[in-house]
Write a structure and sequence with these properties.
Layout: H1 5-12, E1 21-24, H2 35-46, H3 51-65, H4 71-78, H5 87-102, H6 108-119, E2 123-127, H7 132-142, E3 146-148, E4 152-155, E5 158-163, H8 171-184, E6 192-195, H9 201-206, E7 209-212, H10 217-226, H11 241-260, H12 262-268, H13 271-290, E8 292-297, E9 309-312, H14 319-327, E10 331-336, H15 345-351, E11 355-357, H16 362-377, E12 382-385, H17 403-411, E13 415-420, E14 437-443, H18 457-472, H19 481-545, H20 551-560, H21 564-592
Parallel strand pairs: 1-2, 1-6, 2-3, 6-7, 8-14, 9-12, 9-13, 10-11, 10-12
Antiparallel strand pairs: 4-5, 13-14
Helix pairs in contact: 1-6, 2-5, 3-4, 5-7, 11-13, 12-13, 13-14, 16-17
């Protein structure tokens, strides 16, 4: 990304071709902090890790940090709490965790370095001691094809608690780099390795170009002694008090900007002039407070075809500052209904021309769109819509909804795409503190909608979305709608087959149990008359044949007869003890898991 020319300057001057490799460590290098910490915290919430296991893990980490145990031993102990968990469930968990937490930890500067190497056609790889579940979602998001990491043993789709050796640590990283070099014709003397830790010293010394990023104290000393260039990034991590103050001031400036517009309304009686004044004032004030600067390409396209429907990719809450700063006046927006419940802010947005819709109710959404047609046709204001529907967790473009495109077609106005490249650098999703950044924005030429039809809407939406993908250089990461539909159809088919299989099995078990019950009841009913008859005959015979007993004899008989009952009870108690042992064993197994 050319916004980070200082960071990528060296890479931009390199020759093209796969003979040069760029190896990246993950934790502390590509992302801020350690992904393992995030995983551990979330797994404790899920109940995968008990408090006792947490204490054991902390002890293990401490021993590893002190050098008392090796990395493989530490990983083996740490992986025990995954024993018995299915890999499929864990993969799903990993994807959600990346989207919710880890994606926003990626350093924008590291992303720029990766993209610079990819543009040059270099062989880019993650070489990390982390597991695939920690790094694969990030690798896919960043467009990194090659990943070497520490793998966990899987048997019958479940974790065994063992680690596949050799692990990707220390000399294991050197072996991984050599393997990639052999497979792809890489010249290691011309290659790069980016890392934050002195634990990677073997691979840093092995490649021709060691590049410490955000190095720890020991690696910083080593780099200084060997003349390795060091870069430090502060775009991620804990926000300062100053960052919080700037963000709060930015939010307050929305209120003061609209208040400043009241005299305009009092003098002119024009709500549109008041909106335009307040919008421009807010945009300038907010950019000054947050340190947001815009690098705009194609700005003329933002003015050439108004009124129109502006569609933009929604990465950050910073978009509420970026769009007014770019478009300035004669605007209307669409917001979710819940914003109306926010004190002051909700009312201000409605006064400012924002139409609030219920996104969960398609019928309500269509009804809410009708006033926007009047805004476009009668008032001459343009409408800003995020067709993704919600903020993305990374720079990767999401699927587009059709509302904005139907609106443009109904109003007879063009679509103007606004591609925001890196608003996520200001504030990624889930983070409400603004950081200073230069945001690249590209305004693409208008798309005519005069000959659009509802029956061909899918093609129109795909065409506009492809414009975004090409500008963001993400086309190679996308699958076609046809492939996606086939994949979804296969998944639905597999789910139906699995459900049918379970239903048939349940039905079969029910039939077997009913049959067994009927057979046992039949045998009992057949046996009862014979037993009853034989017992009655024996009873009669005994009664008639045996003389009356005196008191001593009766006591002897009573003492002898119950002996059979304790034997039967003993067998039952024995069975109960066995069952208890089985349950205890199962409990111990599950707790170990």
């Amino acid at each position: 990304m050319d916004l980070y020319r200082k960071v990528t300057k060296e890479v931009d001057a390199l020759p093209n071709g796969p003979q040069i490799a760029a190896f990246f460590d993950f934790d502390g290098t590509v992302i801020y902090g350690y992904s393992a910490t995030t995983y551990l915290r979330e797994q404790m919430k899920r109940g995968d890790v008990s408090p006792r296991q947490l204490v054991e893990l902390i002890k293990t980490m401490t021993q590893f940090g002190m050098g008392n145990i090796g990395f493989s031993a530490m990983m083996t102990i740490a992986s025990q709490y995954l024993k018995g968990i299915t890999e499929e469930d864990y993969l799903e968990f990993a994807e959600k965790l990346y989207a919710k937490h880890i994606a926003k930890l990626i350093y924008p500067e590291s992303r720029a370095l990766i993209e610079a190497h990819l543009r040059k056609g270099h062989t880019v790889a993650l070489v990390t001691a982390a597991t695939p579940y920690q790094v694969m979602p990030a690798a896919r998001d960043l467009g990194i094809e090659h990943v070497k990491c520490t793998k966990l043993e899987i048997v019958d789709g479940k974790f065994t608690g063992a680690v596949v050796k050799p692990t990707c640590y220390g000399m294991g990283k050197v072996d991984a780099a050599e393997q990639i070099a052999e497979e792809h014709g890489v010249d290691l003397d011309k290659s790069y390795f980016y890392s934050d830790s002195d634990e990677d010293i073997q691979l840093l010394e092995f490649v021709g170009n060691a590049r410490p990023l955000n190095p720890n104290k020991r690696l910083r000393r080593i780099a200084r002694g060997r003349g390795w260039p060091v870069q430090d990034f502060n775009s991620r991590g804990s926000a300062s008090v100053f960052d919080y103050v700037k963000t709060a001031a930015t939010q307050v400036s929305m209120l003061t900007s609209f208040a400043a517009g009241l005299p305009i309304y009092a003098l002119t009686g024009s709500m549109n002039k008041t909106r335009n004044f307040s919008t421009s004032l807010f945009a300038d004030t907010a950019c000054a407070l947050t340190g947001i600067e815009l690098d705009v390409e194609g700005e003329e396209n933002a003015w050439a075809n108004r009124p129109c429907v502006f569609v933009f990719n929604h990465q950050s809450q910073a978009d509420v500052v970026i769009l007014p700063a770019l478009l300035r006046r004669d605007l209307a927006g669409i917001g979710k209904k819940e914003i109306g419940d926010v004190p002051i802010l909700g009312k201000l947005m409605q006064i400012g021309g924002t139409v609030l819709i219920d996104r969960e109710n398609a019928a309500s959404a269509l009804e809410a769109m009708k006033p926007l047609v009047d805004v476009l046709q009668k008032e001459g204001r343009s409408v800003c819509v995020a067709p993704e529907g919600t903020r993305s967790t990374s720079t990767t473009l999401g699927r587009f909804k059709k509302g904005a495109f139907h609106l443009a077609m109904q109003a007879g106005v063009p679509i103007v795409p606004i591609v925001i490249h890196n608003a996520i650098d200001v504030a990624p999703r889930g983070q409400y503190v603004f950081r200073s950044a230069t945001v690249k924005v590209t305004v693409l030429p208008a798309v005519d909608t005069s000959d659009w039809q509802a029956t061909t809407m899918n093609q129109h939406v795909d065409y506009v979305r492809d414009m975004f993908l090409e500008e963001l250089d993400q086309m190679q990461f996308q699958i076609s709608d046809q492939e996606r539909k086939k994949s979804e159809a296969r998944l639905r088919s597999l789910k139906r087959k699995e459900a049918a299989k379970k239903a048939n099995k349940k039905k079969k078990n029910t039939k077997v149990s009913v049959k067994s019950a009927s057979e046992s009841s039949t045998s009992v009913s057949k046996a009862k008359p014979a037993n009853k008859k034989s017992v009655s005959k024996k009873s009669v015979a005994s009664t008639s044949a045996v003389p009356k007993l005196n008191g001593d004899a009766k006591r002897k008989v009573k003492a002898v007869e119950p002996k059979r009952k304790p034997r039967r009870r003993a067998r039952k108690l024995s069975a109960v003890k066995v069952s208890a042992r089985s349950i205890n064993a199962a409990d111990s197994d599950s707790s170990a898991q």
